[in-house]
Give the backbone structure.
Amino acid sequence: MLLEVKDLNSYYGLSHVLQGMSLTVYSGEIVGLLGRNGMGKSTTLKSIMGLVRPKSGSIRFQNQEIAGHESYQIARAGIAYVPEERRIFSNLTVLENLMMGVKPGENQYQGGWTLAKLYHHFPFMKDRSAQKGAHLSGGEQQMLSIARALMGNPALLLVDEPTEGLAPLMVQEVRDVLLKINKEGVAILIVEHNLKVALSLVERVYLMGKGHIGFSGSVQELQSMPHVQEQYLSI
Amino acid sequence: MNAIAVMLITQAVHGLAYGMLLFLVASGFTLIFGMMGILNIAHASFFMLAAYVAFQIMAWSGNFWLALLLAPLAIAFLGILMERVMLRRIRRFKLGKALVLFELMLTVGIMVCIEEAVKNIWGTDPQIINAPDALRGLIPCFGMTYPAYRLFIIGLACSILILLSIVLFKTRLGNIVRAAVQDAEMTVALGINVPLVFTFVFGLGTWLAGVAGVAAGPLLTVFPGLANQMLLDSFIVVALGGFGSLMGAFIISMFLGELTAFGVQFFPGYSTIILFGFMAFVLTFRPLGLFGERE
Ligand SMILES: Nc1ncnc2c1ncn2[C@@H]1O[C@H](COP(=O)(O)OP(=O)(O)OP(=O)(O)O)[C@@H](O)[C@H]1O
Ligand SMILES: [Mg+2]
């Protein structure tokens, strides 16, 4: 078991957003976290990443309790985060953005995801390495956000709505990239609104109701239960 | 050379020297604000305190260079203490949006404490710091003479500016600082110990204010109110230059230095009104400053 979230409760001020959230990710798999707007999918990822401090519950990553740890410690433990808004450093160059993903004490040649390898996967980054992040298109920023996360050689990638607002061709590209990354052994927990894309990527899904899991199962199981889809997804 | 040209050039050099001092103070002010969202009202008080610490070191040792070395370090130490002990603690409480206000009040409190402590220790009479012998007198150049000490300040600030730019734009640490100025949360999520970087920037910022304070000593008289003018001018620099923008801070500092120098000559009494009116105007229409980068 790579990641085990159990009975997590997170708040924004007084509003109780995660209410006993639990999920599990095994090494090397892709898991989908789906659900309607405002159910707490992003908050789940932020809580795992330590950006939102859970009030109670446990998060075990590689058999270590990480709930309550500082975000940078969680990142160093091997979890990387690709946020909804991509959050490229717009006044840093493409190369500088990538280098920000390198963990302290490591360098770009270390581990599976070297700069050379990422340039091989994303040739545009090599050609435009000296350009500011602000000058990239939405799709390119998404790719850069993913590549930046990979520079730290994570065991688990948290990806929040990577295809949001992208043209269909770009959606395909992002999907293919995530599959490739997963083939290299990186486990992925993905939040995705596009059901078709999500189901073509993942093996297992969690559907969120308000603040907790309402359904979990394989893609086949979900597809055979239209009433579950109706209850938890906006289709 | 005719008298008017001499007067203009002399004023320009005066303005440049003050602008450079202002930049040293305001660069730390803007970095701290840009990165941590803390408007450290006590920042200019560190500038003033540095001048007093330098005065004391000179009273003991008579050595200006020793004061220039030690006083800024002492000030940086105090700044780091303030960040680690107070500002960091206050962030642990879940104050939400009110945090900014509490931080502001905290820094105001520190400003008042520094001012009162200075009055108690050194009194309210102006103190004099003498420039070292080597920097007294005038230096001839291009058919004119310039006060050596002002040239020294300009040179010192330029060297620091160049060093700062190299660190900020050519090193990993600089990339981290720039990234954290833009998005501290994302930076921390990439595995970087941003709180430690905060402390570094806070220390660097107060060190810069300290250097400026010592350098200003021989130029301006040292008195407790020294912080006030500097605080107001730093405000303008940060507001007009753009929060967190070093380049903007530099340009506005130079502009303000010259405006102060020439304003005194040509329209005394009105330069302050024009300046602060302009600041309010810019804040109304371009709240991120003239050179601020949009997120
Ligand atoms: N920073 C915040 N402060 C206060 N409330 C927030 C904040 N962020 C999110 N919320 C609220 O918390 C709830 C869960 O938000 P969250 O972003 O986790 O939902 P989501 O499932 O990711 O939705 P979406 O599909 O729209 O991205 C929502 O009701 C939202 O309004
Ligand atoms: Mg979301």
About this structure: Chain B touches chain A through 22 residues (CB under 8 Å). The first strand of chain B starts at residue 138 and ends at 141. Residues 3-36 of chain B form the longest helix (34 residues).
